[in-house]
Design brief:
Length: 327
């Protein structure tokens, strides 16, 4: 379908990220506030049928890519049914997960043609991983990642870098790309409600590249695909690649084609947007949500919901926590 969800800057939006749940089997401190979150009551969460119906509407408006996120999407009951039905929409399906339950679904993903999987992994040190996630699933996650690579899935590792926590592992992560077709995505620490963000804890794109050059020498700059959220690189002779998602120091908003749908059916124009548009309530009332979607996208700001120069605590603290937005 021809893209119809176009904002006032002329950007067509063809990529929908759907959060299936705000529940997760990990407790990463940068994603979930220390005190936890108030989980959304079941009656306010989209049913699988509602997810499918709303997704179909987006596809009719030109969306051609859907990424399933959470919380942790694989904890959603009857996840297999949802994947099978979404494949019937003719979209490219992608997944972001913490990797714990991947072994249960690889056969399904092969059958459905879901090949692109992002796995959140913030440390290659078992003890540090447990410190970050507050759980001990490291061995299982690493096995599932390796199995996915061996089975030919396009595995990307999402690494949120936080100074004093894991920035010394940049070289270790890049070294993973030497002999395997895997991509490492370094993500600058981003602010959300309750995650005690402070850029003094951040690691910039410049710092990451400097560390890479110090350890590996020349770094090959790759051509970024259209709508890429990262600047992408390769070490000469390595099979895999690494990228940097520099949301804070070098925003990639000019070609943004993404829309977010929260587990409770709210459309967000931007990860940092405070404003949300309820699609679930009018959908349940039998209204057409197409004009609502098209009107909502017209309210999208050019970059980071208007935080063009600096991250404003008065704004981002009014946003949701990351776990309830969708990773």
């Amino acid at each position: 379908m021809k893209p119809q969800i176009i904002d006032t800057f002329g950007r067509p939006h063809t990529y929908l990220r759907i959060s299936l749940t705000d529940r997760c089997n990990l407790r990463c401190f940068y994603c979930m506030p220390e005190e936890g979150i108030e989980l959304t009551e079941k009656e306010h969460i989209m049913t699988l049928e509602e997810i499918l119906e709303i997704s179909k509407t987006f596809v009719e408006l030109g969306v051609d890519t859907i990424r399933l996120t959470g919380g942790e999407p694989l904890v959603r009951k009857n996840f297999e049914y949802l994947v099978r039905e979404l494949t019937k929409l003719g979209v490219t399906l992608k997944l972001t997960t913490n990797g714990i339950l991947l072994d249960k679904y690889y056969d399904l993903f092969e059958e459905a043609g879901l090949k692109k999987i992002n796995v959140s992994l913030d440390s290659l040190d078992k003890a540090k991983n447990a410190f970050i996630t507050k759980r001990d699933y490291y061995d299982r996650i690493m096995k599932n990642i390796q199995d996915g690579i061996d089975r030919g899935f396009e595995i990307k590792l999402n690494v949120v870098l936080i100074k004093g926590v894991n920035e010394k592992e940049i070289g270790d992560f890049i070294a993973l790309t030497k002999d395997q077709h895997v991509t490492v995505k370094f993500i600058e620490f981003m602010p959300f409600a309750g995650n005690k963000w402070d850029w003094s804890k951040g690691v910039s794109e410049e710092e990451i590249l400097n560390k890479a050059k110090e350890q590996f020498g020349d770094v090959e700059v790759l051509e970024n695909p259209k709508h890429s959220t990262s600047n992408n690189f390769r070490i000469n002779g390595y099979q895999g690649t690494f990228g940097i998602i520099s949301t804070i120091t070098n925003p990639f908003c000019s070609e943004c084609n993404r829309i977010r749908l929260t587990a409770d059916g709210k459309m967000k124009n931007c990860l940092f947007a405070n404003s949300e548009t309820d699609l679930l309530k009018p959908h349940r009332e039998g209204q057409s949500i197409k004009p609502i979607i098209l009107n909502t996208i017209k309210q999208k700001k050019f970059s980071r919901d208007g935080m063009d120069v600096k991250m404003d605590a008065e704004q981002y603290e009014k946003n949701r926590s990351m776990i309830s937005i969708g990773g």
